[in-house]
């Protein structure tokens, strides 16, 4: 039983990584294309850092923010529609991972990562910091809850995302019924 939960957890992590890298990079591609950029090259393979390069890119700030925003909104939107615990796991991972990526890219200063590019194009460090605080804060809380749910004996990862109503059985922080 424990082995099954661990395997399921590992599969969820792999799926989450693929969804996160794909939606983040596709966000850049959509943003750059919508602003009239010409996509020169792109790599969406999830086993290394995906990238996209636009030349010219008339609105690089929009291209950069599009990856960060769509990389969070698409998985969360899908989770709201699908309403399954496994999708909330993926969505919460994507929220946390996007925020953590921007924060660590800021610390690393590697010029090809999104944060140094945002700063280079005049984006306020306050805006970047606010994005990091919100995504890491909400992402951590949601992902922690999703991890507890995925590894819990009482929970089935295939269940619908819980919505507590007055009179419902009290639920644990993982969203599972307390027994």
Describe the structure.
With 179 residues, this protein is mostly helical. It has one domain (2-151). 64% of the residues lie in helices and 5% in strands. The chain has helices spanning 2-34, 60-82, 85-108, 114-120, 125-151; strands spanning 39-43, 51-54. A hairpin with a 7-residue loop joins strand 1 and strand 2 (51-54). The two termini are 19 Å apart.
Sum up the structure in keywords.
mainly alpha; 179 residues; two-stranded antiparallel ribbon; 5% strand; 5 helices
- Helical fraction: 55-70%
Strand content: 5-15%
Query: Spans of 5+ residues with little confidence (pLDDT < 50)?
Result: 169-179
Q: Kindly state the mean pLDDT as a whole number? A: 89
* Biggest β-sheet: strands ordered side by side in the sheet: 1-2
- SSE-based structural type: mainly alpha
Q: Which overall shape is indicated by the principal axes computed on the Cα atoms?
A: globular
* Number of E strands: 2
Give the radius of gyration: 18 Å
Number of helices: 5
Largest sheet, strands/sense/barrel: 2 strands, antiparallel
Which H/E pattern describes the elements?
HEEHHHH
Q: Give the CA-CA distance, first to last residue.
A: 19 Å
Count of individual domains: 1
């Amino acid at each position: 039983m424990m082995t099954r939960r661990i395997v399921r957890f590992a599969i969820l992590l792999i799926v989450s990584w693929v969804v996160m890298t794909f939606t983040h990079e596709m966000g850049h591609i959509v943003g750059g294309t919508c602003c009239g950029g010409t996509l020169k090259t792109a790599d969406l393979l999830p086993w290394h850092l995906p990238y996209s390069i636009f030349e010219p890119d008339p609105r690089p700030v929009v291209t950069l923010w599009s990856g960060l925003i769509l990389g969070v909104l698409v998985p969360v939107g899908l989770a709201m529609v699908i309403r399954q615990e496994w999708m909330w796991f993926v969505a919460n991972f994507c929220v946390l991972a996007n925020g953590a990526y921007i924060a660590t890219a800021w610390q690393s200063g590697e010029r090809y990562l999104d944060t140094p590019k945002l700063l280079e194009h005049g984006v306020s460090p306050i805006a970047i910091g606010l994005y990091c605080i919100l995504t890491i804060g909400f992402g951590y809380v949601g992902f922690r809850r999703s991890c507890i749910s995925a590894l819990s004996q009482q929970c089935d990862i295939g269940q619908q995302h819980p919505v507590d109503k007055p009179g419902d059985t009290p639920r644990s922080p993982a969203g599972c019924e307390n027994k």
